[in-house]
């Protein structure tokens, strides 16, 4: 049996853990609110801004990105409801057309549109796969699509990382963000900046199934 000193020490430790967990939840909720209302797209930026606003500065209280994403889903469900659902649906339908447009490049949908956390400010993010560095640029030129080139740093796996071409363009009053990756990356998605695991991604057929599930869910919700 623990003596009174040990009992007090255990109680203090448990209390400290509970307070830290509560602060993490509070920070995750505030970061999610900032992302939903302020248009912040970067989890780390939202986390630090939330910590500053709440005056919480110990690292143990900082939530993981996945905790913030879960809090963002809950915030959107509670406060945005059908409006946010419609934004996701609209972008998924546009993503389907974009995947067909880029069919020569083994395209995949990634990011918030696929995850269901997209809002009115979210770009449709795609991954294309090609070992020809100029093929995507030629594709834009051949179809008369004006696009702006950028680059993005990604970790392909635990050993490989690098900067990869990105193309930004707009159509249907939506923004698109297209990253061009080597063909062999099709075997395994790059690591997510949220949890360092391979990104979830969807092909045309997988997105078609997801849209069908969305439609069924919409009918059930209206009954």
Description:
The chain is an alpha+beta fold and 223 residues long. The chain has helices spanning 4-38, 43-54, 65-101, 112-115, 135-142, 204-222; strands at residues 108-110, 124-129, 148-155, 161-171, 174-181. A five-stranded mixed beta sheet has the order 1-2-5-4-3. A hairpin with a 2-residue loop joins strand 4 and strand 5. The longest helix is centred in the middle third of the chain and has 37 residues, at 65-101. The protein is globular, with a radius of gyration of 21 Å. The protein starts with a helix and ends with a helix.
What are the SSEs and their pairings?
Layout: H1 4-38, H2 43-54, H3 65-101, E1 108-110, H4 112-115, E2 124-129, H5 135-142, E3 148-155, E4 161-171, E5 174-181, H6 204-222
Parallel strand pairs: 2-5
Antiparallel strand pairs: 1-2, 3-4, 4-5
Task: Please state the CA-atom Rg, rounded to the nearest Å.
Answer: 21 Å
Low-confidence stretches: none
Strand order of the largest sheet: 1-2-5-4-3
Order of helices and strands: HHHEHEHEEEH
Q: How many DSSP H or I helices?
A: 6
Q: Could you tell me how far the N terminus lies from the C terminus, measured between alpha carbons in angstroms?
A: 59 Å
Outline: globular
> What structural class should be given to the helix and strand makeup?
alpha+beta
Approximately how much helix is present in the residues? 40-55%
Largest sheet: 5 strands, mixed
The overall strand count is 5
Report the average pLDDT across residues: 88
Instruction: Report strand %.
Output: 15-25%
């Amino acid at each position: 049996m623990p003596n009174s000193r040990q009992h007090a020490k255990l109680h203090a430790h448990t209390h400290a853990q509970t307070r830290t967990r509560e602060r993490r939840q509070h920070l995750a909720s505030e970061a999610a609110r900032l992302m939903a209302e302020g248009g912040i797209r970067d989890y780390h930026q939202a986390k630090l801004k939330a910590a500053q606003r709440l005056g919480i500065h110990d690292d143990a209280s900082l939530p993981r990105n996945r905790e913030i994403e879960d809090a963002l889903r809950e915030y959107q469900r509670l406060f945005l409801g059908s409006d946010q659902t419609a934004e996701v649906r609209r972008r998924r339908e546009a993503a389907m057309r974009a995947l067909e447009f880029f069919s020569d490049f083994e395209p995949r949908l990634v990011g918030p549109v696929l995850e269901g956390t997209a809002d009115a400010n979210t770009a449709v993010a795609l991954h294309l796969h090609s070992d020809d560095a100029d093929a995507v640029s030629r594709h834009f030129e051949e179809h008369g699509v004006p696009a702006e080139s950028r680059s993005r740093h990604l970790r392909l796996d635990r050993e490989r990382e690098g900067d990869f071409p990105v193309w930004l363009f707009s159509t249907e009053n939506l923004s698109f963000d297209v990253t061009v990756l080597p063909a062999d990356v099709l075997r395994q998605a790059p690591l997510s900046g949220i949890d360092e695991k391979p990104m979830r991604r969807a092909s045309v057929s997988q997105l078609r199934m997801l849209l069908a599930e969305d439609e069924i869910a919409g009918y059930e919700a209206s009954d």
